[in-house]
Amino acid sequence: MKHYLYIEMDNCVGCRSCLAACTQCGGHDERNRNYVLDVNPFVDRQTIPLMCLHCIDPACARSCPAQAIQVTKEGAVLSALTEKCVGCQNCTIACPYGIPKFDRAQNLMYKCDLCYDRTKEGIPPMCASVCPTNTLQWLTEEEWKTKEQRHAIGQWSASRSPESPLEGETNVKISLPGILQGIQKLY
Amino acid sequence: MIVAVMMAGISQGSDKAAAIARGSVYGMTGCAACVVTALAVLRATGSWWFSLLLGLAVWFASGFALQAARSIAGCPLQDVRRASRERSRFRVTLITAGPPGVVVYYLQKRWKRGAVNMNRAFASRWARNVFAAVCALAALMYIGSRFFTHLDLALYGYMVGTVVFIGGFFYRFMAWAERPPTRILLRKGIRLIFRRSTPAVAADHLVVHRFIWNRGWYRWLQHILLGWGCILSAFVTFPLVFGWMYFTMADNGTYTVVGFGIDLLRVPADGWIAFLFYNALNITAFMVIGGVCMALYRRIRHKQALAEQSFAYDFLPLYLLLFISVTGLLLTFSNIFLHGFGHPVMSLVHQWAVILTLLYLPFGKLAHIPMRPLSVLARNYRDHYGQAEPKACKVCGTEFVSAEQSRDVVDVLKQNRLEFKTEEGAHLAELCLPCRRKYRMSRFTGIPTHQIRAKEANQDAKG
Amino acid sequence: MPKDNGAVKAPIANKHHPGEKLVPTHCSYCGMQCGMNLRVNTATNTIIGVEPRYDWPVTLGKMCPKGVTAYQQTNHGDRLMTPLIRDDRSLRGTKEGFRQASWEEAYDLIVRKFKSLQDSYGRDALSVFSGVSMTNEKCYLTGKFARVGLQTRYIDYNGRFCMSSAAAGFLRTFGIDRGSTLPWTDLNETDCLFIAGSNTAECHPTSMFRIWEVQNRGGYLIVVDPRETPIARRADVHLDLRPGTDLALANCMVNLLLAGGYADEAFIGAHTNGIEELAETVKLFTPEYTSEITGVAPEKLIRAAELYGKAPNAVVMFARGIEQQHKGSDNVSAYTNMCLVTGKIGRPKSGVATFTGQGNGQGGREHGQKADALPGYRKIANPKHVEDVARVWGIRPDEMPQPGVSAYEMFELMTNKTIRSLYLLCSNPAVSAPNLNEVRAALMSLDFMVCSDIYLSESAEFADVVLPSTTWSEDEGTVTNLEGRIIKINKAQEPVGQSKPDWLMQVELAERLGRGDYFRHLTSARAINDEFRLASKGGYADYFGATWEKIDRQQGVFWPCKDEKDPGTPHMFLDKTFYHPDGKAKLCALPYRPPAEEPCEQYPLRLTTGRVVYHYLSGNQTRRIPFLHAMCPEPFVEVHPETAAKYGIAHEELVRLHTRRGEARFKVKLTEAIRPDTVFVPYHFGHDDSVNLLTIAALDPMSRMPEFKACAAQIERIAMASQSSPAQTGGFR
């Protein structure tokens, strides 16, 4: 069954469990590959996680001279193949979101692979498994459709101008801060 | 051959790679024709040089044949839908009219497209390069073997295999080198090849593999055994095959190593150097077997390996190398303990294993062997341009890469129809990584996070 | 089957790696007791990682960063492997001078010292200071060990710095103290959450998905906190009161609820006492008057009361913010009044809950570690209770020691030499107690001190003998989480080095103290559990029916659980019967009292303390975990930019913060998410970095809880001699 990683940004409390959990994925060599950023550090405590969005047309793979970045059939953009990565770091410069990390000593790029060892077996990725706030969720196609309808443009994205906040189509789905704006109050 | 090509397609997982894979089937058909011809002629005439020449001629001729074949089957590199339409029409013709119908169909197509002329004798730059390389190899053989006087004809299979490998290698390498990012890095990297740091970097990357050491001692040991086992084997085998190196034994119990017709070394026949020479391939076989066993063990234990590995890409090369090493050792075993029993059969099996591996090499995981030197070029490219003109982040001013590489990446992305402009008009590749992440926050929330002068929180967790 | 967002989801499989097994258990840290699976290498039998426990109904596999990294404690390089003895007493208060010793030598020394001190100064010269980050079995046995093994009256525990106000408040109002009247799985289905003094997002992060779900469904979230914490940021109403003024705010809420017609007269009449007095007391607290005290705008107070009052179902929740005050138990009763006057209690999806801080903060306070309590929430002051427990323990009722004194008061008794010796376990008061200069002096004045810990904590630095104890993953037992659900901790690996579980140390010590007859039969955690369930039988906190098998079978058992057939009690008071003799709850009329120390000219700022998400309590465990340390390596003082401008201090600048009791230096963190009159410092850090050097030991008269959350302070700029140089950028490659 097709699943999506879905980021409901407004829920984030900045606990960085996702960073800690990332190290626990079998294929991650005990290093995390994701980010949590302070949005307005001197004003409030809003934070937003930034994961690899797994672009349909990934700039990192396009810019790799060694063809070291593979895309799985599920759409996960994997870390550089260890035997192919030549350490040029083009991917880190090409990625519009600043995601790939580079290990100088190992001369190797590594990045979020959507916990491929888990997700290919239908198990949610570590970050979405542990996220205590449901900021990161692992949704079925159907659940995603429901979310998309509920947070349709005009309600859901109301806090931003209508143009896309991303640089292209991605496999990871997002909802911007302000999700409560469209919600009908109970009383 | 087809298996090898299919594997490459699978392992690359992109359309382009698949297209290359399909394309190489056609390319390799020419090679196959060459091999078959050479083998047939050799069997018939017993003259190896005549068979080789004829084989090359057939290859040359296949340049024409390929044009025709491609037009019939529908060029795989063109629109897939069109190709399938063409194919179905071909199938219909075949069924309704039989072989004569196919001939008519073929002639029709041919005239419609315009005649094949001599300018297109080489189907591509690829064919030209392969032809040149094979000629150069032949020339080297001619000189190295003292004008073909010292060729070991028992090894002709390897020779043919090498020629085929050259074809495959060029096919793969050129497809790869034509990709915009690769082209840039190759061009600029080669220009910088004479930097003073090159030998040190090359030794670090290509000889001692320190970057692999940093990934763990186990992986390093495994790779040293495997890598150097293979490379040393090749260094022994191929000079022997092409007659660049051979041994003569004088009566006085000394042993002469001849390289390119020059007496390189004279050693006592029962000395340790001679021992190493006799047993070089046995030693490397043990290295490779050790490395393969370590690699296989890692593949069943290591979690990332378990997640991403596939049989064709990760296991097949290991099995191939294991097979070569074991059959090679069996040859020695047969010599020493069985007085040569089964030697001819085993020799043939070993030879075919090597040829098969050579055919596979450019398309699977082993392709990283010829491509790895690019890492030296990459290091030179980063160091040179980084010193020449560093790029300051458009937001915070931190120098994070060379201006050259930033520009190159912008160009490469443009060629892929990717253009990332910020609201302020900069390209995202001109922002340092923390600023690029913060800029995304500003796109999500409307708050100009990237303009706020606060350090990005620590983003690294070690488990 | 886990239920989330109203939809029943298919169970999620776990990832199984080759050569590993999964041991289902719970986190070692806070009261959430999140479910987790420990990954154990089957070849070496060591814990190597963590895997979510998706089928745990409370947390559904979710974990905070502490939980994710908790497994790293067990095989940590700082673990104590052997008993340590320090011969040179002049080195006390430092890490120096310890030598490795055998268990026999350590036991011999302890027994010799304890006996000689008791011979010279009486049995009560010894004291036990314990904690509740350990299993019910250990907590129970510690109480028994103190009273039967050591025969001293002086035992108390670190819950005095944590849960005691909630306990005292609930006992007064309901006649029983179960932290939550409803299971956590109800929270996401309620319509309004009123959360006071809880930085839930950082202290109990795995509650957050349920809290956000209330809002996602269209319900309301009201948060009372001086800081705009991550949960307050998204709240519908954020009541940003001055630290230490909760009682006024709670009274105002009750006043507005009564005045606004939201009171449930029938419920009040049938099930409560004291409405007249309460109504009279709260009448004073009009929005305007309350606004003067608390600094919260009157409109916000009115809006909050309206939202809570109108809600079909609502839950009032609170935590240390309101409890760690010298009127903490009053605050608890006052906020609980909101539920009682509106009748929003004793039914699903409505009620009151406190966020229990420590892992076993609930269970640990019920089974006789408290100075005045015996297992099953019995009281030493009650002869019937003493008789019940004495029977189980096999002692004469008159052998039962008298009630002792509370945690902080024990330190006072150490200073005046009433208490001569301390057996400290599972706690780190040299960081977590208030007014640390006094506490550290008290520890220095001891004739002999034993400390049992997994690491060499700041408190262990004062000890003469340090005993290596086990982490939660090297022993088994039960824990009671913040819902009142008894759950099972499982053993994942053998104890490292020579470390031993605390219960085993106590059994072995009792033998050597000549009290083996009472302890010899306790050869396993299971055996202790059997005795302890029996000891709790008939008490308020009745665990008798909560067998380990039942816990496994039904994913935990809520106490009271009286016998084999009783499935436990997820929801309290469903029959509207409370635990006072007349079955009614008590509405407490509580006049406002200001904090013990109000700002003045010399100390114009209000200092409040709290936690960060990366650390747990004194930080003895979490500061050693690389990830948690990297995320928050040092304390800081949160200052509003306006205040900072007034003092001329900048972001990341080092400042001197001082109160009447002490001073410390902290880096400034500028944020508008705090009141300008308030500064905040997290309390997880030891030695000179400890904010408890500054806090006040004003104790709540009922719960003996110190007022950690409010005192008067002053900031001072330090002329910076050596400005740290910006990190050299090594270029890029």
Summarize the structure.
The complex is a heterotrimer of chains A (187), B (463) and C (733). Chain B has helices at residues 2-12, 15-45, 48-73, 80-113, 125-144, 156-177, 180-191, 198-207, 210-213, 217-241, 272-301, 303-308, 311-337, 343-360, 368-371, 374-388, 403-415, 433-445; strands at 245-249, 254-259, 262-268, 390-392, 399-402. Chain B is mainly α.
Indicate the topology.
The complex is a heterotrimer of chains A (187), B (463) and C (733).
Chain A (H helix, E strand, L loop, with lengths): L2 E6 L8 H6 L12 E4 L8 E4 L8 H4 L6 E3 L5 E4 L9 H5 L6 E3 L4 E3 L5 H4 L6 H5 L5 E5 H10 L22 E3 L12
Parallel strand pairs in A: 1-9
Antiparallel strand pairs in A: 1-8, 2-3, 4-5, 6-7
Chain B lengths: L1 H11 L2 H31 L2 H26 L6 H34 L11 H20 L11 H22 L2 H12 L6 H10 L2 H4 L3 H25 L3 E5 L4 E6 L2 E7 L3 H30 L1 H6 L2 H27 L5 H18 L7 H4 L2 H15 L1 E3 L6 E4 H13 L17 H13 L18
Antiparallel strand pairs in B: 1-2, 2-3, 4-5
Chain C lengths: L2 E2 L2 E2 L11 E7 L8 E7 L4 E7 L12 H5 L14 E3 L11 E3 L2 H19 L4 E5 L5 H14 L5 E3 L6 H11 L17 E5 L3 H4 L4 H9 L3 E5 L5 H4 L3 E3 L6 H14 L5 H7 E2 L1 H8 L4 H8 L3 H13 L3 E5 L1 H4 L4 H15 L8 E4 L6 H4 L8 E2 L3 E2 L3 H11 L13 H9 L5 E5 L3 H4 L3 H9 L3 E6 L11 E4 L8 E4 L4 E5 L12 H11 L12 H12 L11 H6 L3 E2 L26 E2 L18 E6 L15 H6 L4 E4 L1 H7 L6 E5 L4 E8 L7 E5 L28 E7 L16
Helix pairs in contact in C: 3-20, 3-21, 4-14, 8-11, 8-12, 8-14, 11-12, 16-21, 17-19
